[in-house]
Amino acid sequence: MIVNIIAMSKNEKYIGHTLDIRTWGRSRRNRGIVRHMIITMDSKNLRRLERDLYKFADSAYPFATKATVNGAAFLARKKTQKNIGEEFVGRNQFTRNSIRVERSKTNQVHRQAAYVGSIADYFPSNEFGGTKRPKAGKGVAIPTSEASGEGRNATPRRRMPMKANKVQNIKLRDVKIRAKSKAQRNLIVIKMAKARKDKHAYIDANGRRSIVRVMGTKNNIKIKTVVDLTSRSVRIPAQPTLGPAVEATRKRIPTIYAKELRNQLRRRGLFRRR
Known about the structure:
By secondary structure, the protein is of the alpha+beta class.
């Protein structure tokens, strides 16, 4: 088979192209006769296709990939926030709102990248697990359910500690007391705190170190444990929320890209049937 491409016009503006396909063959009836077939097609569609391809490469494709990267990042953010609501006890919206997206702004495809993560400093420990140790003092400060006003038996604690019971707002006096036992020392500390009108006091009772809220009257003192300081360290189990969201989003990327590509083609009027 011999294929020749013959221009129908030699002018700069081409009218069309002719494909001259010649098939050589022999048979019993007509030996050596050449069977000749001519196929003609309009080159305007080829020119239009060529222009669309250039425009697609210059603008549609980079915008589609950028929109895909950013769309995937925001979808991962949405899934992560949903996982946080299901895995954690929501005492406030800070952890959920800490998930942020840094979107891609460049049209250079090889440099396009979007990032999703949390601005909370404790988020890596929740995601990968870890060990919490006290920065200073006797133990890890763990607010109790009484600190949030939910009562002693509320498990787990579902609200944040009240402002006065937050660790950073508690001020303790450095008290030096000589006592025969820890029980006697705790009693003296509580009475001194009430006499000085201090709201909190540190006690060590039955092997449990804690900060208590001193309430009641001088003759009828009541205390509530607001911070537990017993543990020297606390093991934080891994509860991944971002990782599963990213993996679930990764499977959706082809669908997201197809949608964004169709949007770009429709917006720019490329490859339309005429």
